[in-house]
Write a structure and sequence with these properties.
Helix content of chain A: 25-40%
Largest interface: A-B, 59 and 67 residues
Strand content of chain A: 25-35%
Radius of gyration of chain B: 41 Å
Mean pLDDT of chain A: 83
Largest sheet of chain B: 6 strands, antiparallel
Shape of chain A: elongated
Number of helices of chain B: 23
Oligomer: heterodimer
Distance between the termini of chain A: 45 Å
Structural class of chain A: alpha+beta
């Protein structure tokens, strides 16, 4: 604008016809920039493609489906920016060219830094094309809901009782008192134990075959999470968040090992008991529950345990997770020990030895 | 997405070639424009070298740069050069100094390790350089180059805008990420194809809008009439002027504008006399300070009715508004003027038409005698011309003054005050002119002095000799950029320039004649081209404006002596190059007349013309439908409508052709999947299913895993199967055109292989 203004002044001063033309060119460039930017952001249609769940602190790729319904004129230099709520760090999507009647899936990525339910409502479609002088943008409302699961960390110690489900890559099950039985033959793989090669059947083949054992019945794991925090300090709240992340890590790990996992935890409104089951949907349901845990000031750990039917936990491993060290010993511990095959109580003081928190690592 | 597009997108993110190529052209063009304006090519050579090196490096995917400290040092040195230039040359050369500064900074930036910020700076510097050149030049070639420059700049800026977006996407890192993702991943998410075609289409549309916007601004922006206009600066357009001034540095452009129409009626026959083609408007009898003064309007009528002459020439003249003069134009001597518009001739010698309706054509009729004049006609003219003001009577009466004598200016006339040194220099120059005239006509002067009784005859021969010598020694030219305004115009013409237009030739002849004692005066008006008339009607254009000399002798009266080389004014050579030259000359004239000379008056005339034109078009259409009258305007409208229809038709045909091509291509693609092709694919799938039951792997994977593990397969079968799998891939991606017979052969081979596998 300033340069155009100066050229206009010079044109009037020298009254040169070419200066008037130059000034007209500059005014036209500004006008054309506004016109093209307005046309582009008005014409383009956009849809957001978002996963339903994401892990906290994990880079998630998000897609913007852009479409140019116009028969004439490509839309160039499009950027899509998420007007995200607090707790999301995002990178804009960019589409260099959107031909007439064409479509493009522009990729962006983001990181949710806090667990919970996030609603993405508005996004900006903008362009600086053609000359970068004018930034035209338009706000579009596209409601999308996103659940941010607590961040996964790394388990330092083997908490789970080994021997639930193992993939068939290990021929002999290492489970104590194994219940393996012969299942069939399959081709040898590099990590197979050579003792289980079936030499007679391998004789006529290019590759040896090994015996494959039957999969054992998976075990159950119960995770009991203490979320009760009346009047807790910020440090305690952070400890509670850490225990939630630990629970999420444990649940994810257990599902990965083939466990049937149950969860008992409390919201401010009441306790939630999810019986031990397997499957992807149950996995998601448990992590969704962890993602949505609120500030519980009404239901202490005892109330949560009371809400569980003890019959559920027969022959199950039980891990109680609490941010409060005083919960390490209590009357309910004995009750749980009698009805479960294996009980483990994890408090905040034990976490550092059991678990490496990825959130803390990323903050460092 | 085809693989080639993916690799191309990677190039977009990593290479600067697409941006640097137009950027280098843009920079070089801006420097070329400035160098042409300045007519100094040293900086152009240096910049060409720098741009060439950079362009070559960019083409090879490399970059030439030095350490930033050297670039900064170079900028400091360049700034010092700018300051020195300003100190040395002052404000007059400020624009040139700024231009040099911008060029040198650009050269320094070209050898810097370039980032997006540097690209922006180079764009801005190049544009500022062009703005500086625009202040200094307004010629047609400059406008063409400027338009090209604007187009390239738009293209470069568009590429740069896209590139900045891609760079931003490529460099964005989230808080939790260690580094940016792989360039291929970013490219996949931002661009699939380089939008070259879209950019060109947008550039064409943008250029149209820019030109329209520039034209609208040009027309609508406020103008100052005193500053604007073609006649105030170093350029001028040929045409009739009420005064004659020599010594101006200028370039004359021939105006093709029609100024008047003349229809001759000659009583003596169809062939017009040569004097008829000189339409005299004004005469000047005194040359002082590079200008002719004492202008008297010609074509006057006497106080008593002139005697009729059977060789009289009647001229019906129509003056068009483009001729901004009320002077009467007629061939000499015009003895009677009738002006039926209601106005009258103000006096016998100063024929000025009173125009009741300015801006409208004026019609008058002039009656002239033709040469040679009879004795009663000369007496009549002598009588009328004696009624002129006293200061000029002596000249018109034929009294011969002393050679080289300076006459004092008459009261009331413009008195040019010169310094003593200038007066001395002017006197010396006039003495040299006199000496030259005497040198050329020495024999005639001696003869005239010896034969006083026939002095009039020698006067005519002296004028002819001088005209001949001028024609031989000087050339006709409209380019007067070499003129020296501080010198005497005639002296400069004769001794230095040795070229000039008709005013110089006529002035030189008149001055030399007067110096040698021949009674002479300068006449201005129009000289018609005898070959340009249609019948007895002639269109007089601005390019027909002319100046000549009139010589007086008691025997002949005033006769015409034209020193301008014959054919210089009306060049009618119809060679190819002449026609090209004429075309560009006309183009340049139109440029100066319509664009450079555009001022507030021109704008007002334009705005006045628009409703009139609309009304005229409407009446033409009505006349056509009502009376079947086809006039020129209607034909023009038809041509315009027809041209627009042709354009629309061409667009429709182009679309139709593209649709047809697309349809054919689709049909061809569909035809690729022949029955033999399908059979081949099915057979191959069967065989692969036998080798790897229920596998979801691709044929190649099956070939390398399942088939490789089967030792019982003969080598030739393996080889053939591998070839058939490759054939499948080539067919699948359309890289191979196979005939039906070849497909059948391949299918048969697969059938055989299937049987052998079953066995």
């Amino acid at each position: 604008m300033a340069v155009t203004f100066v050229v206009g002044i010079i044109a009037v001063k020298v009254q040169g016809p070419m200066m008037f033309c130059m000034f007209g060119c500059m005014l036209s460039v500004m006008t054309v920039s506004v016109f093209i930017a307005y046309r582009t952001i008005t014409v383009v249609q956009v849809l957001r493609e978002l996963p339903a769940h994401v892990w906290q602190n994990q880079t998630v790729h998000i897609g913007y489906y852009l479409r140019n319904p116009s028969r004439h004129g490509a839309c160039l230099g499009l950027s899509v920016q998420e007007i995200a709520p607090q707790g999301i760090s995002s990178v804009d999507g960019y589409c260099a060219s959107l031909p007439p009647l064409g479509s493009f899936r522009a990729g962006a990525r983001f990181v949710a830094t806090a667990r919970g339910k996030i609603t993405l409502g508005n996004l900006c479609v903008g362009t600086r094309f053609p000359f970068g002088l004018v930034h035209g943008w338009r706000r579009r409302t596209l409601e999308s809901t996103l659940l941010v699961w607590p961040a996964r960390g790394r388990l330092k110690r083997q908490l789970l009782h080994a021997g639930a489900a193992q993939s068939s890559t290990t021929a002999p099950s290492p489970m104590t008192g194994g219940q393996d039985e012969f299942f069939g033959l399959r081709e040898y793989r590099s990590d197979d134990n050579r003792r289980w090669i079936h030499w007679r059947r391998s004789a006529g083949r290019a590759l040896p075959v090994v015996r494959e054992m039957a999969k054992p019945v998976p075990e159950s794991l119960w995770v009991i999470l203490d979320t009760y925090c009346p009047g807790a300090s910020p440090a305690n709240l952070e400890l509670r968040e850490q225990t939630i992340r630990f629970a999420a890590t444990l649940i994810d790990y257990a599902f990965d090992r083939g466990y049937r996992v149950g969860l008992a935890t409390s919201f401010d409104a009441g306790a939630i008991i999810s019986p031990a089951r397997g499957g992807a949907s149950h996995h998601s349901a448990l992590l969704d529950a962890l993602a949505q845990i609120d500030r519980n000031v009404r239901n202490p750990l005892g109330a949560t345990i009371d809400a569980i039917g003890h019959g559920y936990m027969l022959d199950s491993q039980v891990i109680v997770i609490s941010w409060d060290d005083s919960n390490a010993s209590g009357p309910w511990v004995h009750a749980l020990a009698t009805c479960s095959s294996h009980l483990h109580v994890v408090t905040a003081s034990h976490l550092s030895s059991l678990y490496e928190d990825q959130d803390a690592a990323s903050r460092v | 997405m085809p693989l080639h597009a993916y690799s191309q997108t990677e190039l977009v993110l990593t290479e600067r070639k697409r941006l640097e190529r137009p950027l280098m052209v843009m920079i070089w063009l801006s420097i070329l424009i400035f160098s042409l304006v300045q007519w100094d090519f040293f900086y152009l050579l240096a910049a060409t070298l720098a741009v060439g090196v950079n362009a070559y490096a960019a083409q090879r995917g490399k970059e030439v740069f030095v350490h930033r400290a050297f670039v900064n040092l170079g900028v400091l040195v360049v700034t010092g050069i700018l300051i020195l230039e300003i100190i040395a040359y002052g404000r007059d050369m400020l624009l040139f100094a700024m231009g040099h500064y911008f060029i040198l900074i650009l050269v320094c930036k070209l050898f810097e390790h370039k980032t997006n910020r540097d690209y922006v700076q180079m764009l801005a510097l190049s544009m500022m350089l062009t703005v500086v050149a625009t202040v200094m030049c307004d010629k047609l070639w400059f406008a063409v180059l400027l338009l090209t420059y604007v187009a390239i700049t738009c293209y470069t800026a568009m590429i740069f805008t896209i590139k900045r977006g891609l760079d931003k996407a490529a460099q964005a890192v989230l808080a939790g990420e260690q580094a940016t993702p792989d360039p291929g991943v970013i490219a996949w998410n931002t661009i699939h194809h380089w939008p070259g075609r879209s950019l060109w289409q947008w550039m064409a549309a943008i250029m149209l809008m820019i030109v329209a916007g520039a034209g609208a601004t040009f027309i609508a922006f406020p103008r100052i009439p005193a500053i604007a206009g073609a006649y105030q600066s170093s350029r001028s357009v040929s045409g009739f002027s009420d005064n004659v001034q020599l010594g101006e540095k200028t370039q004359i452009y021939l105006s093709k504008e029609v100024l008047m129409q003349v229809r001759f009626t000659y009583d003596a026959g169809p062939q017009l006399p040569s004097s008829a083609f000189y339409l005299r408007g004004r005469v000047f009898d005194e040359y002082r300070g590079n200008a002719w003064v004492h202008g008297l309007r010609g074509g006057a009528s006497g106080t008593r009715p002139p005697p009729r002459d059977p060789r009289g020439l009647t001229q019906d003249v129509t003056l068009y508004p483009a001729l901004a003069s009320a002077t009467v134009f007629a061939s000499y001597p015009a003895v009677e003027i009738s002006y039926p518009s209601g106005a009258d001739v103000t006096s016998s010698l100063e024929a000025t038409l009173r125009q009741p309706n300015p801006g409208e054509p004026v019609h008058y009729t002039a009656y002239s005698w033709t040469q040679p004049l009879t004795a009663p006609q000369r007496q009549y003219l002598d009588h009328t011309e004696r009624m002129r003001p006293a200061a000029t009577q002596a000249w018109f009466s034929g009294v011969r003054p002393d050679p080289g004598a300076e006459r004092p200016p008459a009261a009331g006339r413009r008195n040019i005050v010169l310094s003593a040194a200038t007066q001395r220099a002017a006197t010396a120059q006039r003495q040299q002119v006199l000496a030259l005239a005497q040198q050329w006509c020495q024999d005639l002067i001696i003869a005239r002095d010896n034969d006083r009784a026939h002095a009039a005859r020698y006067d005519q021969r002296i004028a002819d000799r001088l005209a001949q010598q001028l024609g031989q020694r000087c050339t006709y030219s409209l380019d007067l950029s070499d003129a020296n305004p501080d010198s005497d115009g005639v002296y400069d013409f004769l001794f230095h320039m040795k070229k000039g237009h008709c005013e110089y030739f006529a002035s030189a002849l008149t001055v030399m004649c007067k110096d040698l004692g021949v009674t002479a005066r300068l006449a201005t008006g129009f000289h018609l081209d005898p070959a340009a008339g249609t019948g007895q009607t002639y269109l007089v254009r601005g390019s027909d404006a002319h100046a000549w000399t009139e010589i007086y002798t008691p025997d002949t009266g005033w006769t015409i002596a034209d020193a301008t080389p014959a054919g210089a004014v009306h060049r009618r050579e119809q060679s190819f190059w002449n026609s090209i030259e004429t075309f560009f000359g006309d183009l340049e004239y139109q440029w100066y007349d319509k664009v450079v000379g555009f001022d507030s008056h021109a704008r007002k005339r334009l705005l006045d013309r628009i409703p009139k034109a609309i009304a005229a078009i409407g009446s033409s259409i009505i006349n056509f439908f009502a009376y079947g009258d086809v006039n020129t305007l209607f034909v023009v409208c038809l041509v315009v409508v027809g041209a627009a229809g042709l354009i629309v038709e061409a667009i429709c045909i182009r679309r139709l052709v593209r649709q047809t091509r697309r349809f054919r291509r689709q049909m061809t693609d569909a035809g690729l999947v022949s029955p033999a092709h399908v059979r081949f694919a099915k057979l191959l799938a069967n065989i692969l299913n036998v080798l790897a039951p229920n596998s979801v792997a691709t044929p190649r994977e099956i070939l390398h895993t399942a088939v490789a593990g089967r030792a019982y397969l003969p080598d030739n079968v393996r080889t053939e199967l591998a070839q058939l799998v490759e054939l499948y891939y080539k067919l699948r991606w359309g890289k191979l055109c196979v005939s039906q017979d070849q497909m059948r052969a391949a299918a048969d081979k697969l059938t055989m292989m299937k049987r052998s596998l079953k066995q």
